[in-house]
TrEMBL record:
Keywords in alphabetical order: FAD, Flavoprotein, Oxidoreductase
Gene Ontology molecular function: 4-hydroxyphenylacetate 3-monooxygenase activity; oxidoreductase activity, acting on the CH-CH group of donors
Protein source organism: Archaeoglobus fulgidus DSM 8774
Residues in coiled coil: none
Record protein name field: Aromatic ring hydroxylase
Length: 461
């Protein structure tokens, strides 16, 4: 089934959630100024879903592309088209991509696990997936543990990693905290996955499950960055983008009971490794398509900025916009190429792992370059402008090209201020793991010897 945006918001409003902003529990979270923009961004995914919706054999109807197990490279390309459009139209996170990556990681991993161990985790997962597809749930994924001292193993600092603290007949009890969680407070289902692989003796951390609104003991503590402060100040456009910053939270699991039906990996180190190994390339590859959409948005903003400043005929600056479009198309091309060169893993089509990791590295470099060009084009005003509340006093001074009002110019300025000062650059870097993490993976995957051999041949080495 495909839900309407307002149906998603209505359902969300029925959930009882412990959400904290600035140390205080909030009421009516759906309408809170720091949360509503995320809700609107997620709602937007529903408004254009029809265009990309595949038919699901599992439930016998059209479902949201973000809740679908990809079967072919065409499926992946359709997902990347959807992602790019969302990133362009929202200029922020759509929040559901991690959920899609989790679905496309848990599916092949549980299938392999059941074939190896004769368990029934895959059946359990399919039952939940059916519900997700039928009810068009918005899904997110929580991997990142707080991790403490990065030089120590989880077993040396148990409180820093989410773990199973009790095994019962009807389920498990989990304890710990996930950090930097995009949009989890506004999702229907939050998949919980390990942040890394584990060694023998660390089985208590090797757990994968789905957290649902009825689970008790979950607390969401919202991020507080500059954009959040602006959102609380109010105004029509002061915060830059009506869909908000990339809003994340910490999710604290305070001895939360999870029934077996929603547990998909338990104490199995190989399966936990599989889930992480499938999630990472899936997320890094869609990340390149996402960066393409973000850079598209920045290119649009750059072009409008040139016009409002009266600089649209300066060819050196137009060249900077063309460079932005070049890196956007390049990042997207990596996603498409990785989809085509991908492979079937236990019934799920995943992108080519080397290309996916390269997409992460190149996508971030492209994003950073696009930001530099945007800043160059826009001038110092994007880091120094007065607020929209000062417009009456300063409007005449701020106006540039006569073709635009002072308010129009300030809107563009605030939008670019949002791009350059919000958590987007950090998010581009670290979402799905840092470029360094992608390079570490690439060093395992890459074949240098055939490259060396080719060189030796050229020089009769
Ligand atoms: C805006 C934003 C949104 C996010 N959304 C989500 C989300 O929805 N879900 C989710 O699960 N996560 C999310 N993340 C988290 C993201 O995946 C992590 O930030 C990322 O994996 C890096 O982990 P870290 O922040 O703990 O960095 P750190 O672990 O502190 O890493 C810092 C640097 O050190 C390197 N490093 C760390 N440990 C080691 C080691 N032992 N050996 C060698 N190198 C090491 C890292 O690669 C990195 O370069 C989000 C992050 C951001 C910024």
């Amino acid at each position: 089934m495909l839900l309407k945006p307002e149906e998603y918001i209505e359902r969300l409003g029925e959930y009882k959630r412990d959400i904290y902003v600035l140390g205080k529990k909030i009421e009516d979270f759906v309408n809170h100024p720091n949360i509503r923009p995320t809700v609107e961004a997620m709602a937007y995914t529903y408004s254009i879903a029809e265009k990309y919706a595949p038919h699901s054999e599992l439930v016998g109807e059209k479902v949201n592309r973000l809740n679908y197990v990809n079967q072919t490279f065409e499926d992946l390309i359709a997902r990347y088209d959807y992602q790019r459009e969302l990133s362009l139209k929202l200029a922020t996170c759509n929040y559901r991509c991690t959920g899609c990556d989790a679905i496309n990681a848990i599916y092949p991993a549980t299938k392999a696990l059941d074939e190896r161990e004769g368990t029934d985790y895959h059946r359990r997962f399919l039952e939940l997936l059916k519900e997700i597809q039928k009810k068009d749930y918005a899904c997110t994924a929580a991997l990142t543990d707080v991790k403490g001292d990065r030089g120590k193993r989880p077993s040396e600092q148990k409180d820093k990693y989410l773990r199973v603290v009790e095994k019962r007949e009807d389920g498990i009890v989990v304890r710990g905290a996930k950090i930097c969680q995009s949009g989890a407070f506004a999702a229907d289902v939050n998949f919980v996955l390990p942040t890394q692989t584990f060694r023998p003796g660390e089985e208590e951390f090797a757990v994968v499950f789905a957290a649902m609104p009825e689970d008790e003991g979950i607390k969401y503590i919202l991020q507080n960055t500059g954009i959040q402060a602006k959102q609380r100040e109010g105004g029509k456009f002061e915060a830059g983008n009506k869909y908000g910053d990339r809003t994340t939270c910490m999710v604290v699991f305070d001895d939360v009971f999870i029934p077996w039906e929603r547990v998909f990996v338990f104490e199995d180190l190989k399966a936990a490794r599989d889930v992480v190994s499938y999630f990472a390339p899936s997320h890094r590859c869609v990340g390149a398509a996402c960066k393409a959409g973000f850079i598209d948005s920045m290119a649009g903003a750059a072009s409008l900025m040139l016009k409002t400043s009266g600089l649209e005929n300066v060819s050196a600056l137009q060249q900077k916009v063309a460079e932005m479009v070049a890196v956007s198309e390049g990042a997207f091309a990596i996603s498409v190429g990785a989809a085509v060169k991908g492979a079937n893993h236990n019934g799920c089509w995943l992108p080519n792992f080397q290309m996916a990791n390269s997409g992460k590295v190149i996508g971030v470099e492209g994003f950073a370059k696009a930001l530099m060009n945007l800043i160059d084009i826009s001038g110092g005003i994007i880091g120094t402008s007065p607020s929209e509340f000062d417009l009456e006093m300063v409007g005449d001074f701020l106006r540039a090209s006569e073709k635009f009002t002072a308010e129009q110019r300030l809107k563009i300025v605030k939008f670019i201020e949002f791009w350059t000062t919000s958590s987007h650059l950090v998010g581009a870097f670290h979402g799905g793991g840092s470029p360094t993490a992608a390079l570490i993976t690439l060093r395992f995957l890459m074949d240098l010897s055939s490259r060396e051999e080719a060189v030796k041949n050229c020089i009769d080495f």
